[in-house]
Every structure is written in structure tokens, then in C-alpha cells.
Write a structure and sequence with these properties.
With 205 residues, the chain is mainly α. The chain has helices spanning 3-19, 36-53, 66-75, 79-93, 98-114, 133-155, 163-179, 183-190, 198-201; strands at residues 29-31, 34-35, 123-126, 129-132. The protein has one domain: Four Helix Bundle (Hemerythrin (Met), subunit A), CATH 1.20.120. The protein has 9 helices and 4 strands; from the N terminus they run αββααααββαααα. A hairpin with a 2-residue loop joins strand 1 (29-31) and strand 2 (34-35). The longest helix has 23 residues, at 133-155. 34% of the residues are buried.
Length: 205
């Protein structure tokens, strides 16, 4: 599955997931400092940033791949607080019809990407600097998968994204973990030895 199709299929899957979240759950626990609305808002940015950044071409590539993007995030002072605040703001922006707004973003990002010619790979301006669209999209799929599972856990509902996309997410998570120095904790878990402690392995949502 190519990265663009994987992203769009996952956006649709998460939109369907959000549609099953009960309105009375939105003010309940989400993840960390976020309530469920804030968590969904943060997740929606996986789509809204693509829409926004495609309107912001960059002149050169300064961040070469998804791994580099997340290393940049890990090294950015105050990143956690900024990410948390943007999630709250995005959640509020979804308005009264959270599911409808989220689905609308999924449709909008599909339309925007459909207008990018096949084979074209524009350089877009991201928080980490200029990135090829083909390298930025995997970071957005990663966010949708990771936080799709977070939403499902918080709401007590099932989430079953495409296994191939999940495998790509696990592979990227492993690369990030190793780059951040957590290889000794990750390898035993992925090999079926040892227990998983996500707070030990990953320090950022």
C-alpha cells in the first residue's frame, strides 16, 4: 500500500471510530492532560496540517524523513506543552458536531491530495522545516494510528485499521524508540520477552 492511500484509508477509519464516540464521553478522560475532545482534536491535526502545509511550499528540504521529524519534536524545548495546547484548541474548533467535523476533514484532505498530480512530490513547510510530501505523510498516518488506538481505549470501543498500516507504524515507532535510546527496552518486547512500559519507552504522545 502506498503512503498516500494508507494515510487516506486510515483517516477514514479514524473518522468512523470518532463517529462511534458518545457525546457524553467527550469531556471524560482522553490521554494525559487531554480530555477525549482534546485527544480527538490533536488527532484531527494529522489531517488539517496536510491541508494547511500544502498551501505553504518550501524552497528546500531541511527534514528528510519521518524519523527526523520525530527526533526534531523530541529535541524541541517546550514541545509537549505546545502540542497539548494545540490539541485543546483543535478540539474546541471541532465544535458541537465533533464526528461531523472530523469526517469533514477526512473528506477535505482527500480532495486536497487528489489535486496533487500522481508522481508529484512537493516540498511543504512543516514545524520541522521543509519536507517532501511523501516523507511528511507517514508522520500523519503514524499520528492517526497511534491516537486512533488512544481514542478507542478512552472510549471503550474497537479500532481495526489496516494491518499493513499498523505494521508500518510499529516499524516507525521502533526506529524512533531506538533513536531515542530505548532499543534495549524495545527489542525484548518485540521479540516476545519482557513487559511493555510505554512510559519507559516513549516519553511523548
Amino acid at each position: 500500500m502506498d503512503s498516500r492511500r494508507g494515510f487516506l484509508d486510515t483517516a477514514d477509519a479514524v473518522a468512523e471510530l470518532v463517529a462511534r464516540v458518545r457525546p457524553d464521553q467527550l469531556d471524560g478522560p482522553g490521554l494525559g492532560s487531554w480530555d477525549l475532545r482534546g485527544l480527538i482534536g490533536h488527532t484531527s491535526r494529522a489531517m488539517s496540517t496536510v491541508i494547511t502545509y500544502l498551501k505553504m511550499p518550501a524552497t528546500s528540504v531541511t527534514c528528510t524523513d519521518a524519523l527526523g521529524y520525530y527526533i526534531w519534536v523530541a529535541d524541541s524545548p517546550g514541545a509537549d506543552d505546545k502540542i497539548a495546547q494545540r490539541g485543546v484548541e483543535a478540539g474546541a474548533a471541532l465544535g458541537a458536531d465533533v464526528a461531523g467535523a472530523f469526517s469533514g476533514l477526512a473528506r477535505q484532505v482527500r480532495g486536497v491530495l487528489d489535486r496533487v498530480p500522481v508522481g508529484a512530490d512537493p516540498v511543504v513547510s512543516t514545524l520541522a522545516g521543509g519536507m517532501l510530501l511523501s516523507q511528511y505523510i507517514p508522520t500523519r498516518t503514524f499520528e492517526l494510528i497511534v491516537h486512533g488506538y488512544d481514542i478507542a481505549a478512552a472510549a471503550g470501543i474497537e479500532f481495526a485499521p489496516h494491518p499493513e498500516v499498523v505494521a508500518d507504524t510499529v516499524a516507525l515507532a521502533a526506529r524512533i524508540g531506538v533513536a531515542l535510546g530505548h532499543g534495549p527496552a524495545l527489542v525484548p518486547v518485540l521479540a516476545g520477552r519482557g513487559s511493555w512500559n510505554e512510559k519507559e519507552v516513549f516519553t511523548r504522545a
